[in-house]
Amino acid sequence: MTDQDSIRFTIGQRIVLSVVPRIVWALLWVVGLTWRFEVIAEDGVIPVVFGEKAGPEIYCFWHQCVLPCTLYFRRSGAVILISRSFDGELITRILRMFGFDAVRGSSSRGAREGLLGLKSVIETGRTAIFTADGPRGPIYETKMGPIKLAQTTGAPIGAFHLQPEHAWTLSSWDRFLVPKPFTRIIVSWAQWTRVPSDLPAVQFETKRQELNNAVERARLRALAHLGQQAS
């Protein structure tokens, strides 16, 4: 714990940060060993499969499937953008125990610094990850960050969704999914989004909507594969 952490967080928060990540890591690791992943993809899309080291790419998914994504991509060496908040610090410490790294910032706080950090990630050959509608929503609506990063780096944006067949759904803004033990989880990939380096800023919204549609298609396709209704 650094002096900066001591000033930034209360004593109660520091206790939580010291204890909770280890508990969550242990529980998620044990339960995650029982999950069965099944990969599907739109025509022409080559998905990133479990265990592969990811390259200089950008990944986007909805905030609700953070838990299964943590297990599925734990060997990817990816770096995720996480907000500068207490919740963000908690998530960062948990993800680092699974082999991820983090750049701090969000669409509302430290956005510029976060994007510069992820630009460096791409330039060193690693993968940058966005929870596309995080950290506070609205649900199923991507932010502009992935488009700006793709435009400055030339990295393609992969859109996917992980949908458990059986899960607890929390009453949070994102309808956060907690997969049940021994469940099947569909890893659904949609078409990649590519942003030209010379794309005018006035056309960023069109690309953002293209990415939004891709992530949502991945979710809906996973639900259809399981015979479930979209909510």
List the SSEs and their pairings.
Layout: H1 3-8, H2 11-32, E1 36-41, E2 58-61, H3 66-72, E3 79-82, H4 86-97, E4 101-104, H5 111-123, E5 128-131, H6 145-153, E6 157-164, E7 167-169, E8 177-179, E9 184-189, H7 204-225
Parallel strand pairs: 1-9, 2-5, 2-6, 3-4, 3-5
Antiparallel strand pairs: 6-9, 7-8
Polypeptide structure, described:
With 231 residues, the protein is an alpha/beta fold. The chain contains 7 helices and 9 strands. The protein has a 7-stranded mixed β-sheet with strand order 1-9-6-2-5-3-4, sandwiched between helices. A hairpin with a 7-residue loop joins strand 7 (167-169) and strand 8 (177-179). Helix 2 (11-32) runs parallel beside helix 4.
β content, as a range? 15-25%
In spatial order, strands of the major sheet run 1-9-6-2-5-3-4
Radius of gyration (CA) equals 17 Å
The percent range for helix content is: 25-40%
CATH topology: Rossmann fold
Order of helices and strands: HHEEHEHEHEHEEEEH
Outline the low-pLDDT stretches.
Answer: 1-6
State the total count of DSSP E strands: 9
**Shape assignment:** globular
- Named CATH architecture: 3-Layer(aba) Sandwich
Give the key terms.
Rossmann fold, two-stranded antiparallel ribbon, single chain, 18% strand, alpha/beta, disordered N terminus, 231 residues, 7 helices, seven-stranded mixed sheet, 39% helix
Summarize the structure.
It contains seven helices and nine strands. The protein is an alpha/beta fold and 231 residues long.
